[in-house]
Design a protein that fits this description.
Elements lengths: L13 E5 L2 E8 L2 E8 L5 H4 L1 H4 L8 E7 L1 E6 L4 E4 L4 E4 L3 E6 L4 E5 L10
Antiparallel strand pairs: 1-2, 2-3, 3-9, 4-7, 4-9, 5-6, 5-8
C-alpha cells in the first residue's frame, strides 16, 4: 500500500523558541522535519546549551541551508561553514554560530526531534 503524506510549515505542529531563534516542527509519517531559523547573534553554546544541558550539541543534523551562513566547530576541533543551497551533515558533538547579519534558515531531517526541548 502506498503512502503519501504532507504537512506545511505555515502551520507547524510544534514551535520551540530559544534566544535568537526558533524551530518549527512537522511529523510526516515516522519522520520529524524541522525548519530552523537562527538570527544573527545566535550561538548554540549560548542560546541552546542551557536548554540541552550538554557541553556541546549532541544531535546529528542532516539538512539543507535555505539562507544565511552557519559556522560549525566539532568537539575535536574540525570546523566548516555552510550557506545557501548546500546540504549538510553534522555529527553529534559540536558548537555552531551564525556568520554575518542574515538569519540562517535550514531544513533538518534528522536532528530536531528533541532539539531545544525543555
Amino acid at each position: 500500500m502506498s503512502v503519501l503524506a504532507s504537512k506545511s510549515f505555515t502551520e507547524p505542529e510544534e514551535v520551540r523558541e530559544f534566544p535568537h531563534g526558533h524551530v518549527d516542527l512537522v511529523t510526516v509519517g515516522d519522520a520529524t522535519v524541522g525548519r530552523a531559523e537562527f538570527e544573527p547573534g545566535w550561538r548554540w553554546s549560548q542560546d541552546v546549551k542551557p536548554i540541552a544541558g550538554t557541553d556541546s550539541c549532541q544531535a546529528a543534523h542532516t539538512g539543507y541551508i535555505l539562507s544565511g551562513r552557519m559556522h560549525v566547530v566539532m568537539d575535536d576541533g574540525a570546523e566548516g561553514e555552510a550557506g545557501p543551497g548546500e546540504a549538510i551533515m553534522v555529527e553529534p558533538g559540536h558548537d555552531a554560530w551564525i556568520v554575518g547579519d542574515e538569519p540562517c534558515v535550514m531544513l533538518d531531517f534528522t536532528g530536531l526531534r528533541d532539539y531545544a526541548k525543555k
